[in-house]
Amino acid sequence: MNEALGLLAGRPLVVLTGAGLSTDSGIPDYRGPGAPRRTPMTYQEFVSGPGPRRRYWARSHLGWGRMRHAEPNPGHLAVARLGADLVITQNVDGLHERVGTPGLVALHGRIADVVCLSCRATSARADLHRRLTALNPGFAEQHADVASNPDGDVALEETDGFVVPDCECGGLLKPDVVFFGENVPPARVARCYEAVEALAPSGGALLVAGSSLTVMSGLRFVKRAAKAGTPVVVLNRGATRGDDLATRTVHAGCSEFLTALADLRAEAVPA
């Protein structure tokens, strides 16, 4: 841990965060030790018919009703203090935004926003939540004990009868997040690549915090950094798909390490 802190203390940084950063806020992660196996809904399934959409929105209605009350933890606060050139988050929970993290790219979008797949109008998830609550009275209370999942949904099987409204234009409503089977908007990817590529000439480093790097949307930045000879530090409770590319690995929780790093970097800044 001390070697990793020393490596990162005085360098320009790009930070890539994943679900493990939010576990201290009570949001479960995907693939950490003890995490149950799960298969998120794909975009193709979501648009395939009313049944899958009803299932998605019923689960997501319950999950987001809980997630929106989650509070940022010391890890989020520390990331905001790091002075990173860019913070790339794979999380959709909005907790980086809550603490005002500068230079933030929400790679997969935000669960707090809703988009119409026809007219592309966006709206606040809170407004849709109120509509879903009114259309499905007693639904949340009936399923209060169902376990939460990382993406802001729950492990619920029985969703028959759940009522899902459409957009005013008649189009389908979808959370403004990147589903499996969708591509991250190219402009977001380009901005992240640009920041990662700038690390090599500046002597910077890439810090991965709380991501197993199982999906390519995050791993590609680690691959790009390693190829350029940029130091990569991977901070995660368990093994990751990027460990072989890392200069240092720290198998620990995020909050303690990130707080120590933010303090160390603050001390290094001239008064």
Produce the secondary structure layout.
Layout lengths: L1 H7 L4 E5 L25 H4 L3 H18 L6 H8 L4 E4 L5 H4 L5 E3 L2 E8 L5 E3 H11 L3 H4 L30 E5 L8 H12 L1 H4 L2 E5 L6 H12 L4 E4 L12 E3 L3 H15 L3
Parallel strand pairs: 1-2, 1-7, 2-3, 7-8, 8-9
Antiparallel strand pairs: 4-5, 4-6
Short descriptors:
three-stranded antiparallel beta sheet; 15% strand; alpha/beta; 271 residues; 11 helices
Describe the protein.
- It is a single chain.
- This protein has 271 residues and is α/β, with parallel strands linked by helices.
- It has eleven helices and nine strands.
- Strands 3-2-1-7-8-9 form a six-stranded parallel β-sheet, sandwiched between helices. Strands 5-4-6 form a three-stranded antiparallel β-sheet.
- α4 packs parallel to α11.
- It is elongated.
- The two termini are 27 Å apart.
- The mean pLDDT is 90.
